[in-house]
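F.,

This is the one I mentioned.
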């Protein structure tokens, strides 16, 4: 039998007869050049050929390069998982081969007498299914909440919590114990908060999970943050930044020293934007170090420091140490106190390109915030290059959005003409019944130029700074939301949710 070797990543699973059994024997089916082909790998050749010798498949057999074979194998795992989500089959041990969570819940509720410990197979399977579905739905957080008569699981998807499932309290207690076990936490301690981490692998991809457990009145509440890898960091274009803003930002990044801040409320994508910027400027010639709490995007291209308050490694302490490490670029997760602000400003003045976040609602308010922290006004003016203020706003699903019938009450609040057609979210299969397809960033880039520095010699007024910036070409958040409403990209309720009016 002559076997030809192929090297192609553009292959997809084909559901042949008994494909699941074939998958266990490393025999993969796919369409290649308009015909169904059996692919095998040299790595598992003896297993695959032994299986094929006992089978009656009439498809041609071809070698697939090892990396291409691994990629197709992972696609098969996801394909099989999705099939199991639709039709419940027998239990599998691999996290990538899980049944539907809702069906699993029914099983748990009707068979709770066999659940004698957190190591019971159904509990392990259920916890794995939570991670799998969170990954599938691109959730950022998993919330497990215990109430008086029930418990529930919710996912944060596109910045909004969505109910996933309800369970019996006793079953949820075992699920929380399982989460503690895999996070190296004390399963007997239920009186104090606990924090931990764990790792899971889904179809060959490793995910880091940050676990926080908090005792509440009726039981423990668990929040698990899914931390991303460097491969998942979107570019500024993918985040939704305007081309004009990106060009101005790229010009600012040519500076060898100075400070750029990103402002906005919690969950507005500040850390993601900073990592996108770092990806842009990363090169072998630069020593880039970040100080984060926690490290949200793991990458092997930059040095990352995890803040640890228990051993005294906070932002100021870590920043002082980093400055002795000959850095070119430094990123501090957040400027939240006078000490961190002062060291960051001094670093920006002494030849380092500094990035950080600050909690203000508007870009222009960042200057006032630094001054309120105790940084001298002239130091702020000398060190700051720009402040970016941003929000993440959900875009309407094009498949199900519908026109708002009564629009008069919104026209005045948002300064929209009476001839503008507004839309509202409905929900369909394509958008997971949320009415929204994805989130994009809207941002205002406040550049500290000579005009602003001259103004800063006087008393600082955020509103006046905003007007000067708009005259210099900055497009405010309100103007961008207004444009999205007029073009039918988002809703009034979404604009109010992110605090823009």
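My design for it:
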């Amino acid at each position: 039998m002559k076997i030809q070797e192929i090297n192609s990543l553009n292959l997809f699973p084909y559901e042949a007869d008994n494909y699941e059994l074939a998958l266990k024997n490393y025999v993969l089916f796919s369409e290649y050049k308009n015909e169904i082909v059996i692919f095998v790998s040299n790595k598992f050749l003896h297993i695959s050929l032994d299986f094929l010798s006992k089978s009656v498949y009439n498809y041609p057999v071809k070698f697939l390069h090892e990396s291409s074979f691994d990629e197709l194998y992972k696609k098969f795992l996801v394909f099989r998982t999705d099939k199991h989500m639709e039709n419940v089959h027998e239990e599998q041990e691999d996290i990538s081969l899980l049944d539907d969570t809702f069906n699993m819940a029914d099983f748990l509720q009707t068979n709770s007498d066999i659940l004698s410990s957190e190591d019971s197979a159904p509990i392990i399977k259920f916890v794995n299914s939570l991670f799998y579905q969170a990954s599938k739905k691109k959730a950022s957080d998993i919330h497990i909440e215990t109430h008086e008569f029930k418990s529930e699981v919710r996912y944060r998807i596109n910045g909004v919590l969505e109910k996933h499932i309800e369970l019996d309290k006793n079953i949820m207690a075992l699920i929380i114990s399982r989460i503690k076990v895999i996070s190296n936490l004390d399963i007997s301690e239920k009186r104090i908060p606990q924090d931990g981490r764990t790792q899971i692998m889904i179809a060959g991809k490793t995910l880091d999970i940050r676990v926080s457990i908090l005792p509440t009145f009726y039981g423990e509440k668990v929040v698990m943050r899914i931390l991303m890898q460097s491969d998942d960091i979107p570019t500024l274009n993918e985040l939704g930044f305007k081309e004009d803003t990106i060009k101005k930002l790229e010009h600012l990044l040519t500076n060898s020293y100075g400070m750029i801040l990103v402002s906005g409320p919690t969950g507005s994508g500040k850390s993601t934007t900073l990592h996108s910027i770092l990806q842009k400027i990363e090169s072998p010639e630069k020593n880039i170090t970040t100080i984060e709490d926690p490290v949200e995007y793991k990458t092997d291209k930059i040095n990352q420091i995890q803040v640890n308050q228990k051993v005294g490694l906070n932002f100021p302490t870590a920043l002082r140490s980093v400055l002795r490490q000959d850095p070119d670029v430094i990123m501090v997760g957040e400027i939240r106190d006078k000490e961190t602000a002062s060291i960051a400003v001094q670093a920006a003045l002494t030849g380092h390109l500094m990035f950080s976040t600050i909690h203000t609602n508007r870009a222009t308010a960042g200057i006032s915030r630094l001054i309120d922290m105790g940084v001298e006004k002239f130091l702020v003016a000398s060190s700051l290059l720009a402040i970016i203020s941003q929000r993440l706003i959900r875009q309407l699903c094009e498949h199900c959005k519908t026109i708002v019938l009564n629009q008069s009450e919104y026209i005045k609040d948002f300064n929209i003409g009476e001839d503008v057609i507004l839309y509202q979210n409905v929900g369909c299969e394509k958008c997971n019944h949320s009415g929204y397809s994805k989130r994009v960033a809207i941002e205002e880039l406040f550049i500290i130029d000579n005009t602003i520095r001259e103004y800063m010699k006087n008393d600082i007024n955020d509103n006046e700074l905003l007007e000067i910036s708009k005259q210099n070409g900055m497009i405010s958040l309100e103007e961008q939301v207004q444009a999205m409403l007029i073009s039918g990209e988002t809703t009034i309720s979404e604009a109010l949710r992110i605090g823009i009016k």
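DSSP finds 18 helices and 20 strands in the chain.

Talk soon.
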